[in-house]
Every structure is written in C-alpha cells, then in structure tokens.
Amino acid sequence: MNKYTTVAIMLHWLMAFALIGMFALGFYMAGLPLSPIKLKLFSWHKWTGVTLFILASVRLAWRIGHRAPPLPGYMRRGEQMLAHGGHRLLYLLMFAIPFSGWLMSSAKGVQTVYFGVLPIPDLLHRNRELGEQLQTLHWGLNLLLAAMVIGHVAAALKHHFIDTDDVLTRMLPCRGKR
Amino acid sequence: MKKLFVIASLAGAIGLPLTGHALEFNALQPDKSSLGFTYKQMNVAMQGRFRKFTGQVRFDPAKVSNASVNLDVDLASIDTGSPEGDDAVAGKQWFDTRAHPVAHFTSSRITPLGGNRYDVAGELSLKGRTQPVSAPITVAVEGGNAAFDGAFVIKRADFSIGEGPWADFGVVANEIRVTFHVIAAGK
Fold it and tell me: What does DSSP assign to residue B173?
C-alpha cells in the first residue's frame, strides 16, 4: 500500500504546526524582559515541550509498528539515503530538543512541573554556567531543526512540482478526494 | 586513671560544657551562617538566598530571658538563581533597594519550647513596612558554637513586595518561606 496510516498523517501535521508554534514562542519569549507574562509563557512552553516529547515517543512507536510507504523507485540510491537520513535526523531532533530544554530548565534551577501539577524530576543540579551552555545547545538544535524543516518542505515541493510524484500528497489528510 | 584525667582536662581546655556551665553565644559568624528563601513560581518550588547580612546575637541557654537577636540583611545581595531575576527584584516593584537597602529583624521575646526548641518573636522591617513575625527554632551547641536553625513564612503583599503586574499570586505565590541557619560563637 502506497500510503501513510491516518494516525501517522495526524501525528505528522499536529507536530508540524506545534513545532513551528513552539519555535516562534521560544524565540519571542526569550527576548522579553522579566515579567509575569514571560514566566507564564516559559511555563506554557515547557508544558508543550513535555507534550511534544510524549507525542514524539508515540509517533516513533507507531512508525516502528507501521512501515512507511516506500520512496519512489526512480530515486537514486544516494537520494534515498539522503531522504532516510533526513527523516532520522528530524526524529532525533524531536527528542533531543525537548530533552535539552528539560536539562536546561533543571540547570537553571527551575524544575519543570507539567501543567503546574506533575513535577518532572530534575536530572541536573542548579549550575548557572551549565544552564547557559544548555541554553546555547537548545538554541543550536532549534536552528538545526529549522534548517531541516526548510529542507524537508523544499524536498516535498520538489517531489510534487518537479518530479510530479505522490510523495507530498500521500501525507495530506484529504487525499481520498483526489 | 591517668588516661581519664587527660581526657577530662582536654575537654576542659577546649571548653566542652561538661558541667553545663553557662556560656553566652554572642559572636555572629556571617561566613558560616546562611539565609535563604523558598517560594512557588507558576507552582514550581523555587529557592534563593541572601549572600550578605550582619547582626548581633545573644543567647545563653541558662538565661533565655536575656537572649536577643538583631539581623540586618543586605537586600541587594540576593541570589534568585538568575542575573535577570536579581536585577528585577532590586527594582521599585520588588524590594526597591535604592530606597530601602536593608531588611531588619529585631527579636522582642524568646520563649523556651522544651528541649532545644525555642520560639523567637519579633518584628521584621522591609521596604518601609514593619510586621510581627515569629519562628520556632532549634539550637544545637557544638564545641564553642551554637547553631540556630528555623524558618518562618511571610506574605509578600504585607510588605508590598512585588507590586503592579507582579501582584498576581498565580505567578509568584504570596507566601515566602524564609529559612535561616545562624552560627554564633561563645565567649
């Protein structure tokens, strides 16, 4: 079958919009002067980050249990490797980014308490210097994700408009109407 | 027998209160003492401390009625965990350290609660406002030092700490728990 499962499609788009929103929120809130709004935004960002980490786990489990449709046969071996490598890196970043945020939060001495109710254990002790290094790491990983997403979108558009194959459309939720 | 005598004279020489002889602890050791606080921010347990404080302590376990404590806390020496936080709380909406650089505590009465526990009642002056506070403490005498440990809770709104948009207790809780570990040497 040359299509993704409905669950895979839903998870893809849910995370796509959430990741873009989180990137914008993180960028915006980091530049704000200290205020109650800033503290609220940081908390919401962390809660969403925990949620995205859970969704990434569900998505990875689903992906392992449900084979993705194969890439078009005309793609060269190098192109196929590039596509698989890119997808692997995207998955890796979906785990590494919230994880780096969690560590950063601990090192900065602000425990993550999911929805203000469930405390997530701190893996690191408060350490100002380490906190700043982890902030740089969190930002660097996000820049890498942004570059990967741009490449991902460019590749999907190339498949659709230049190669005119179904690589893009098979991930769209409304494919049945075509 | 000779050995026992040596131990006894050694103990006497370093001032161990073998006979319960009265010793007044009155030399505050700021370097060995600490003053911290904990609070909830977005329901997250946070902690901080003040690096600098001075004061006078007088405490003789045999004459508790004469005991007293005065503490002056340099509010600008706060460590909230982030430079951004330290700067913010020095501002007008929080401590306003330019107008009110020092927090002052004076004890009015120290009451024995039995064993090594006491109740310290007094007044706390902060940002131009004075409120009565009291704290149960424990006193541990070790060598020539006495360690006073305790905690009390203040409501920041009582001292107008965190005004304007910060008055929202949902972001920074009203209750602030102050914890102290004060060491005083005996004379």
Answer: -
